[in-house]
Amino acid sequence: MAEAAGPPAAATPLLSAATRERIRTACARYPAARSAALPALWAAQDQLGHVPPEAMAEVAAELGIGAAEVEAVATFYAMYFRRPPGRHFIQVCTNVSCALRGAEGLLRHLEERLGIPDGGTTLDGAFTLESTVECLGACGGAPALQVDRYSHEDCTPDRVDRLLERLRAEPGPTGAPR
Ligand code: FES
Questions:
Q1: Quick one: 45 and 99 in the same domain?
Q2: Co-location of 46 and 93 in the same domain
Q3: Among 48, 64, 70, 103, which is disulfide-ready with 60 (CB 3.0 to 4.6 Å)?
């Protein structure tokens, strides 16, 4: 007779003890634990490179709030990655000022140059392209995009081509303007 299956094994937690400690330290700085959602998500992303749903659930448990609340924060802010990004993360702002100054054309140009659709990652893992970003706060230099943590303003197809060429040669996620 077949043995009765036991309860499913508990999944191994994604967050390390050090990350959990960072989250608790962040919590201690705020009167309400939910206010620490941003630094808690940073801590998770610093460890994992991105914040998958399972990690969001663990962050929520550490904060003592619902997973949906953490997910709402993580999906609102473009700096949190829900899946592993490429070595360089390119975000094209398509909000009003940028849209009026040619952001859509810039996005199509990037899709064509990189050979990936919006939201995709190149096969070599060098680039992830996304346009689901809120205003980058660089409206005066529209159209703008952000590469890794750096803004690039007054972007034209030619400038973007030069930028891609430079980024391909860079080993890590910098993207600093020159
Ligand atoms: S609308 Fe694009 S930077 Fe503000």
A1: no
A2: no
A3: 70
Q: Is 135 in the pocket of ligand 1 (CB under 6 A)?
A: yes
* Dist. CA 101 → ligand 1 center (Å): 10
pTM of the model: 0.70
Cβ–ligand 1 distance for 61 under 6 Å, the answer no
Final residue of a structural domain among 43, 76, 109: 76
In the reported structure, the alpha carbon of residue 36 is separated from the centroid of ligand 1 by a whole-number distance in angstroms of: 27
pLDDT band at residue 169 using 50, 70 and 90 as cut-offs: confident
The model's pLDDT over 104-134, given as tens digits with 9 standing for 90+, comes to: 999 999 999 999 999 899 999 999 999 878 8
Q: Are 111 and 117 in contact (CB under 8 A)?
A: yes
CA of 153 to the centre of ligand 1 (A): 10
